[in-house]
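Quick illustration for those who missed Monday's session on complexes.
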Amino acid sequence: MSASSPVVEFTDVAKRFGDAPPVLSGITLCAQSNEFISLIGPSGCGKSTLLRLIAGLSPVSGGKLLVGGRPPAQEASDLAFVFQEPTLLPWLTVRRNIEVMLRLRHTPADRRRALADEALSLVRLTSLATHYPRQLSGGQKMRVSIARALTLEPKLLLLDEPFGALDEMTRDHLNEELLAIRERQRWTAFFVTHSVAEAVFLSTRIAVLAANPGHIVHEVPVDLPYPRTPETRLSPAYQTLVAKVSLLLRSVEVSTPHAA
Ligand SMILES: Nc1ncnc2c1ncn2[C@@H]1O[C@H](COP(=O)(O)OP(=O)(O)O)[C@@H](O)[C@H]1O
Ligand SMILES: [Mg+2]
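Prediction with magnesium ion bound:
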């Protein structure tokens, strides 16, 4: 991806499946390098679909979408996807799970080991490298899933409610860890969440979507300095933003009663 062009550029993008009414309409959104953009909105408004468009897993139906200056491509090597379910292979150790994408890409063994070591260290799982998924907590499994994505050295990281199934304290910890990793690796993130607090804590910008068809109704810049720490959550600026985005989200949910 070239450094000058936006990492992701939606211009009036629409998405429909078959003859059904459009799922997304009029999506215009531009992500610059190193931005962290959260997508929040009622369920069914098209957040996951929007990520799948970026990943080239599904084609746009109208408008223009460029990823790294090009049409999205499924085989893009500098993009990684993290899902809500950690999707680990139960018969492989943590290290093997982390290496699995690299094996698929036929990365040479020594390089694979180096990338896995780095990813293990980034998510603080080095001591659990020989454990199996059944021996891990939910939060640890998600850290393995994130490590697996990081071995791909992505320029663009797509995360679809990765912490949605975790308790609040684990989620807060993982939010802090994700930002610590971001201090050491430069990637651009699109992050889907239902948690306003999480969106504000992580993001440089929040896009609030409404449903039927999914469209962006508000873009809220988050002008809180990085690094963000647990103290950030106590600051009046953070709390004001959480209150503001919560109100915006509530008005969207009230005005879209048909959302699933
Ligand atoms: N492959 C598909 N075929 C048909 N409809 C789909 C498909 N994927 C998603 N949809 C529909 O698109 C809408 C948005 O779904 P989704 O992107 O999963 O929403 P969200 O992630 O915001 O909850 C839903 O109505 C869903 O049923
Ligand atoms: Mg979804």
